[in-house]
Design brief:
This protein has 341 residues and is an alpha/beta fold. Helix content is 57%, strand content 12%. It has 18 helices and nine strands. A nine-stranded mixed β-sheet has the order 1-9-8-7-6-5-2-3-4. The radius of gyration is 22 Å and the shape is globular. The protein starts with a strand and ends with a helix. The protein binds nicotinamide-adenine-dinucleotide and magnesium ion. The site of nicotinamide-adenine-dinucleotide (NAD) has 23 residues, from helix 2 and strand 7.
Length: 341
Amino acid sequence: MTKLYYEKDIDPALIAGRKVAIIGYGSQGHAHALNLHDSGVDIRVGLRKGSSSWSKAEEAGLRVTTIEDATQEANLIMVLLPDTEQPAVYEASIAPHLQDHDALFFAHGFNIRYDQISPPANVDVAMVAPKGPGHLVRRTYTEGGGVPSLVAVEQDASGKAKDIALSYAHALGATRAGVLETTFAEETETDLFGEQVVLCGGMTALVRAGFETLVEAGYQPESAYFECLHELKLIVDLMYEQGISGMRFSISDTAEYGDMTRGPRIIGDASRQEMLRILSDIRDGSFAEEWVAENRAGRPHFNQLREEAAKHPIEEVGANLRAMMPFVSAGRKKLQDVSGG
Ligand code: NAD
Ligand code: MG
């Protein structure tokens, strides 16, 4: 049975008794540091010397020190660096300062699941992964709410790793929304599958293919943009609020009939077969191997793809149309304001 944990299930004393190091002060880092601090937890932020976040964290009233010193001082170390940077920083600045019965925490399972980081056997290895971006983790906390989160234990040296993770999640505000127990493997594999197949990869490919089909058939690019990209938000909001049936209740019967009869032709057998191949690449580690190698090589393919994608006509049409609708991009500005660096 799936179990969700709420405030009543938690022992807040566990995290109150720890010295916590938050490594990194970016999207997740600033939110974890500030929420735990406001929950009364003894935290210090660990950053590189010369990091532009150093003064930001100090101005927010937090104590900042180097990653090495933060790890040394603390007995619970939460690693909130970009996943691609974590292995090198772990080797150089964290691993040499880990002590018996420390707890090493992550907010995503990639580096543990794919053996990019191999912690010693005498520390707890656990995950507290909010299911939302850092600025929401911070904002909902200050508003008295929380972002639902996953907890997982990879290695339980203390015999208390799960309770400590739950207590951390509580201080983060997550038990106000619900905390779900999972494993590093499930979190990592479903996260990669979701972003590749549905949320990012599947979605952008669908939008661009629809746009290209209309433009190549002679329709105005502006019409194609409104139809295939702009209106997506309305539909997604309805699905988010009420599920697929609820969304269909709000659209016309013509749209609903077209949806139910044509949708399965777009995502048919060929697409489902490809989904299985993508899932298989995730599970057998070949996607991870490819991405690690790409990073080691300095990201030549990634940079080329990014550059090509930015030149797609949908970007130019969209930029012009959005310039006339400043309210559309208002939320994006706010997001940039709070994200770290
Ligand atoms: P981020 O890119 O926003 O922040 C990373 C921080 O690390 C920044 O302060 C940056 O300056 C610092 N940094 C970068 N390279 C460094 C290096 N080589 N040495 C030292 N410091 C360095 O990262 P994030 O999005 O907050 O992600 C942190 C972790 O949280 C990741 O494991 C990620 O998967 C996970 N996560 C992120 C989100 C999200 O919404 N962003 C959601 C859930 C989980
Ligand atoms: Mg220590």
